[in-house]
Amino acid sequence: MEKKFLLAVVISVLVLTLYPYIINKFYPSQKTAFQNQPFVNTIPPEQIKTSLEMPKGIEPQEKEVELENSLIKIEFSNINAAINKVYLKNVPGLEEELLLLDTGRRKNKPFSLSLDITPYKKTSYNFVKGPDNIFFSSLADNKIFIEKSFLLAREGPILKVNLRLTNKSDSERVFTYGIIGQTTLKSEIKQDERLLEFDIKSNNTV
Predict the structure, then answer these.
(1) Cα torsion through 109, 114, 117, 121, rounded to 10
(2) Which domain, by its residues, includes 77?
(3) How many domains is the chain partitioned into structurally?
(4) pLDDT at residue 79 is higher than 80
(5) C-alpha dihedral over 100, 36, 109, 127, to 10 degrees?
(6) What is the pTM of this model?
């Protein structure tokens, strides 16, 4: 039993150590061309609908949706419009996809969002999937309209993320973004928008 455990630890360390080498050797970066592209929503406006937060006491039903290219597969959840898992595809010597990230039961998953410094609670989002992007929307507390758009490069490990919050209330609200940090959206500032690129290969925002 101890030998199996030690072997598993050694394999895990090797995967983490060799991953940057594998990704750079077999999948050259195509970041520059993608970075210069504007964030274009390829989903027709008529398909984008608002989703209301599930009534209190009712557990949202989880649905999964994926974005993938020849290198990366990302599994999203309609719960909090966050990332569940990330896989590396077509790794030489491996028949199956390599699991890079599994957020499991974490509440503060990548690109999740907390309102007014409260614990991350389960919020159901409506979503529409395009050829290479996904648009999520939800209405929190009937006052905060949340939009999240994810665009994956057709080649390479770069994910563009566009987050937009619209405060329809008359009071100041504080938001905490998973990965990005915290922002305060005051009553006189009705909208906050963040556009960033996330390099899955190096696990950094760019």
Answers:
(1) -80
(2) 2-205
(3) 1
(4) yes
(5) -110
(6) 0.68
